[in-house]
Design a protein that fits this description.
By secondary structure, this protein is of the alpha+beta class. It folds into 2 domains: about 10-30 and about 40-100, no CATH class; about 110-280, 2-Layer Sandwich (Alpha-D-Glucose-1,6-Bisphosphate, Chain A, domain 4), CATH 3.30.530. The protein is about 45% helix and about 25% strand. Helix 1 (about 10-20) packs across helix 4 (about 85-125) and helix 2 packs across helix 7 (about 260-280). The radius of gyration is 18 Å and the shape is globular.
């Protein structure tokens, strides 16, 4: 996603639009559940649209010229209907690509310092206790193993557009040489971007309890750069008797965080996994 900051503007637009097409329209045949309650997919798109405006405003800082005009145009367009979400996603993808990986790191550097300190404080205040953001999505097509294989290919090949473009709050998601996944994103109801590293080989230490009704699992521990553990993920899947599959997506956060933080991350999960499942099924 962020490898070609010096490429021509036309090339950048073409490349980013090419990677954004998988996320161009709201997913069909998906049912989303938060706290066991069915959520209209249009509401998830509306949430994504609001977060696009936040991401655009963040990327707009300290950037001028063509990029500034692009982001200003994007912010203005967000007053229109949610049918424009595909164009908004594409514009945001172009902005990330234009800024480039190093530019994004510089843009959020101060936020990462502050959020790391907050994470350490939250862990200390929680005294080993955790709370969980959980969202479920059911698809009437596909299989659990097929979707897991698709995610694994994206992880192994470091397919950054797949990972980053699925949610406006994703700023950089990259596979490191040691297999860990580096994530720079805004989680939950946070005001600042944070950086963490997910080790999908460290499954024994995952603090999210497994659900035996979901036999397929993608799990890992999330830590800061120095290995300090701040959470974990356990995403589980099962095939449905009538066809299709269902995913249960769970993220562990320190227990001391406010409930609103957890509630917002449930929408974050609905957005990113809804877009990933939709892209996989296409």
């Amino acid at each position: 996603m962020t490898r070609a900051a010096a490429t021509t503007a036309a090339g950048l637009a073409a490349a980013s639009l090419g990677t954004a097409t998988s996320f161009a329209a709201p997913p069909d045949g998906l049912r989303t559940f938060i706290d066991g309650v069915a959520i209209d997919r249009a509401k998830v798109v509306e949430w994504e649209k609001r977060r696009v405006s936040v991401a655009a405003a963040r990327l707009r800082r300290d950037y001028v010229g063509v990029l500034a005009g692009e982001l200003d145009s994007l912010l203005a367009r967000l007053e229109s209907t949610v049918d424009d979400i595909g164009a908004a996603r594409a514009a945001l993808a172009r902005a990330r690509l234009t800024i480039g990986e190093q530019g994004i790191r510089e843009l959020v550097a101060a936020e990462l310092v502050a959020s790391e300190a907050a994470a350490r404080t939250g862990i200390a205040a929680s005294a080993g206790r955790w709370q969980y953001a959980i969202t479920e999505i059911a698809s009437d097509r596909g299989t659990a193993q097929g979707f897991l294989d698709w995610l694994d290919r994206a992880l192994v090949t470091d397919d950054r557009p797949v990972w980053t473009d699925a949610c406006p709050d994703h700023y950089l998601i990259a596979t490191l040489p040691d297999g860990r996944q580096e994530v720079i994103e805004v989680t939950g109801g946070a005001m600042l971007a944070s950086q963490f590293f997910v080790d999908y080989t460290d499954t024994a230490a995952v603090m999210v309890p497994p659900d035996p009704a979901f036999p397929f699992t993608l799990a890992g521990v999330a830590s800061l750069a120095d290995g300090f553990v701040i959470g974990g993920v356990r995403h589980q899947f099962r095939d449905e008797p009538g066809g299709g599959f269902r995913g249960r997506f769970a993220v562990a956060f320190p227990a001391a965080l406010p409930g609103l933080y957890i509630a917002e991350h449930q929408w974050h999960l609905a957005c990113e996994f809804g877009n990933w499942i939709s892209a996989h099924l296409r």
